Amino acid sequence: MSTRTTDERGFRELSDTYRHELHLHCYRLLGSFADAEDVVQETLLAAWRGLEGFEGRSSLRTWLYRIATNRCLNALRDAGRRRPPEPVPPFDPPEPSRRGEVTWLQPYPDELLERVADSEPGPEARYTAREAIELAFVTGLQLLPPRQAAALVLRDVLCFPAGEVAAMLGTTETAVKGILQRARASLAKHRDGAGHRPSPRERELTKRFADAFTAGDLDGVLSLLTDDAWLAMPPAPHEYHGLEAIASFLRVTMAVPVPEGFTMTPARANNQPAFHCRHGATPAGLMVLTLDGDRIRAVTRFLDQK
């Protein structure tokens, strides 16, 4: 079917082919599942309205990525972009190790990753499909200048040719090379580099964590963490680094009575093990674990996720 068609059904069939991968692309750049949904809708509407002007000098996929990328850049430049309100805990938390910057970070369900067309990374890929969706990678992107993040994802994850990346960003190939050099150096500083590699011990490790956490067994939880582990709770900015800091926080939270009981149901998000948490029948967030060998290197509890 010609991409020049003005038939709405035909365009929907074409655009739906790329909807899921566009959503994942926007999520990487924005760090927010909800914001990515909004931008994809804007992208497809803009593409439909501009279809008559599409001259076919690039593929439909490249054209859609160009629109989506620039919509993401507009959203990131928007001074009115709202950070989620900081939640008020029902207890007095200890002083955090630091206050995180990326409080808008949301998880990405693994079941949606399965809808993205699976393709082998090209020769320019610097990150595997698994690594490029993990929380550490997505968080690192949020700390880069928007154009650096966009160039890095387009070139090093999606493997678009340098010339197409330059056209998408409205610049030159020479400029893209400079942008990429800075982005790669900055991302290496932001990320801790351990990366999760699945192993047969993952299910046992995560079950032991859930059993200890739901039982209020602080020592049991701490025994499963690396010495330099992190605990974060978006949209709350509080982050705790190291066993002593994490213990001080968990000691307070575990002392808060939960009459209806606390349960954790296995799930997956961002290609990482996760748990749906509940206080009785009430959703109490999504907890995502970052593993490092036979220990847990980071615990990220998304407080506003069901």
UniProtKB/TrEMBL annotation:
GO terms for biological process: DNA-templated transcription initiation; response to stress. Pfam families: Sigma70_r2, Sigma70_r4_2, SnoaL_2. GO terms for molecular function: DNA binding; sigma factor activity. Residues 78-100 are annotated as: Disordered. PROSITE patterns: SIGMA70_ECF. Residues 207-258 form the SnoaL-like domain. Keywords: DNA-binding, Sigma factor, Transcription, Transcription regulation. Residues 141-187 form the RNA polymerase sigma factor 70 region 4 type domain. Residues 17-82 form the RNA polymerase sigma-70 region domain. Belongs to the sigma-70 factor family. ECF subfamily. Interacts transiently with the RNA polymerase catalytic core formed by RpoA, RpoB, RpoC and RpoZ (2 alpha, 1 beta, 1 beta' and 1 omega subunit) to form the RNA polymerase holoenzyme that can initiate transcription. PANTHER family: ECF RNA POLYMERASE SIGMA FACTOR SIGJ, SIGMA 19 FACTOR. This is RNA polymerase sigma factor.
